[in-house]
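cache lookup: miss for this entity combination. No prior model stored, computing from scratch. Input as submitted by user K.M.:
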Amino acid sequence: MEKLRERAAAILADGTVSLVIGYEEGTKRPRPLFCHDGESARKLIFDSRCFHNLAVYLTKKELVGNGRFAVTATISTLRSIMQLYVENQLSEDKLLILTVDLSGTLREFVTFDEISAYVEQFELKRSEREQAILTRIEGMTREERWNFWQEEMSHCFKCYACRSACPLCYCTKCVVEVNRPQWINPWPAPVANMEWHINRAMHMVGRCTACGACGDACPVGIPIDLITRKMMEDMAPEFGYIPGLPVKKGNALSTWKLDDREQFIR
Amino acid sequence: MSSEEIFEPKIVAFVCNWCTYAGADLTGTSRLKYATNVKIVRFPCTGRIDFLLLLKSFAQGADGIIVSGCHPNDCHYTSGNFHARRRWIAFRSILDMMGVDVRRVQYSWVSAAEGSKWADLVNNTVADIRALGPYTDYQKVADYLEKEVQDGEA
């Protein structure tokens, strides 16, 4: 951790970067910290309690400016960053990535390939919480699943925290802000809530890296991250990708194969 | 509805302009009879058929949906149907996860020369949906739309 602080202060001091995005101690758990000088870099921390996906800030021009910037990244954040590279939202000459691995060694990445080689060592597994809820959902009949989600969705009041927390929801104009036509009713209501969440999942097909930021951000605790999580696991064998490992050749829905599955097409 | 009346499902068909719409036209010009439950919506391409349109039709009272377009490799725009097919695979998986009845959405390829296939497709889908009954699950949660209830007031 000390090395991370020193390195962050050094790159800020010599002008390599103008900003380091990292974590500092928060009230209950670490919170994001924006360091513009060596002074604030001393507050940096990095440990297993760091959960926020800092990749969400990287596409916000008003935050990161035009210069070079650095970010301290967890494995989830690295996955999101890779996906953002694939979608041409980040450029390798603008971003410097700092991370501390399990043995406490400071690592630095610049290129997509370096990140990819590092992330490949970590398999994306369901967490205990995800495993518990998904096993429950998988054991349900269709009607039970419908009732389960209707009950969960009834708490949703459309704050769109899920959208704000997601590093891959970077559209400047979202479908819910379009009102000609009004695709999804803006007020919270059963159908409108469900349409929003189905819509969100559809826009994440082959892109979601299962960082869990959306579910974590939900103020009423709807396990919305599991919709995209399950979809991602289902789609991996269909479209032949490894969950959490973006590939440069394009996203699931922007490419196609001649022999995609079609037993359900009559 | 009294018990002796047969349930007539409402079915919306989203079809592409170049194959299935022309195919449905051929069914008519060939004087083939088919179920009248279907309302056809014409699109430039299956690639244009947004998944939200399907959800909207359920919300507005459709009991079943047909989505149909050109056979693979026959797309007027080369690859619209390939992109659409991928989207359907993903959409089916998400709908299933959310507990929406995926049996009510029938996908098909019907070319401009397959007038009789279109008739069969509609007849079979109507029979299937009739067996499943009205989609009350969805209509129940969507009924506030019809009543135009907003902020708790009608």
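stored under new cache key. Chain A touches chain B through 48 residues (CB under 8 Å).
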